[in-house]
Amino acid sequence: MRRPIVVGNWKMNGTRDSVRALLGALKAGLNAQTPCDVAVCPSFIFLPEAADLLAGSTIQLGSQNVANKAEGAYTGEVSPAMLREFGCGYAIVGHSERRVVYGETDELVAARYEQAIAGGVTPILCVGETLEQRENDETYAVLDTQLDAVINRCGVASLAKAIIAYEPVWAIGTGRTATGEQAQDAHAYIRARIAKQDANVAAGVRILYGGSVKADNAVELFGKPDIDGGLIGGASLDANSFISICNAAG
Predict the structure, then answer these.
(1) Cα torsion for 166, 7, 149, 195, to the nearest 10°?
(2) How many CA atoms within 13 Å lie on the side-chain side of 194?
(3) pTM above the 0.90 mark?
(4) What are phi and psi of 153, to 5 degrees?
(5) Are 125 and 139 in contact (CB under 8 A)?
(6) How many CB atoms lie within 10 A of CB 72?
(7) For labeling, which of 20, 110, 164, 232 is most exposed (least CB within 10 Å)?
(8) Which residue among 95, 97, 104, 187 is the active-site one?
């Protein structure tokens, strides 16, 4: 059985006061009885404080990106070893905003993924299509290309140490959400694509949905057989909403 996981991607939001308040509320509302693993990904600058605030809780810590190099003269980058020093066990790689807004290529995403694996940090590999690509019936081709970049570089077995997040770009921050059937179809395709190379890895890898999950649609989405939780954006900034989404994973 794949244990669900719900991950909050806070993006470029938060202040010291709001981080303390949000984590305090999450610690009060989430515990060992919560029916899923839970992680939050604050901005890099808040990771040390978040690590202290989460000590002793069941909530895990992740980052919103990770360097494609282990160390060296790479201004502005943060290595897996640095993340691990603060108890950071996950790193989002290839989020659509990194791909679309900052021009990260499939090759760069694969290199970041590779460094996360090598550094003992679980990558949360984001894949998904834009609205134009979906309308042109290119969804599967896009998923193939994005997955192949990682598999060709690191091998399909590496996915046993990773999480995948399917995020239809057209449903992020737009108020639009894929139907449960659309989301399940994409998740099933990803799992089947991996199964062609390794059925055991495909059966075990957790695939999250990352397209505007809210408390009112989480139960339907998480009830699908190939959806193993969510990568949550805006709703993760509201404690009550995020806690409701986590509970829906049960």
Answers:
(1) -60
(2) 29
(3) yes
(4) -85, -40
(5) no
(6) 8
(7) 20
(8) 95
Catalytic position from the list 97, 104, 167, 187: 167
Residues of the chain with pLDDT > 70, as a percent, come to 98
| Phi and psi based region of residue 114 (left: phi greater than 0; alpha: psi -120 to 50; beta: remaining) | alpha
208 secondary structure, DSSP code? E
Please write the tens of the pLDDT for every residue from 148-194: 999 999 999 999 999 999 999 988 766 676 889 999 999 999 999 99
The full length of the chain comes to 250
Q: Strand locations in 136-246, DSSP E?
A: 163-166, 206-209, 229-232
**Alpha-carbon dihedral sign for residues 178, 183, 189, 191:** positive
CA distance 190 to 172: 19
Q: Residue 187 catalytic? A: no
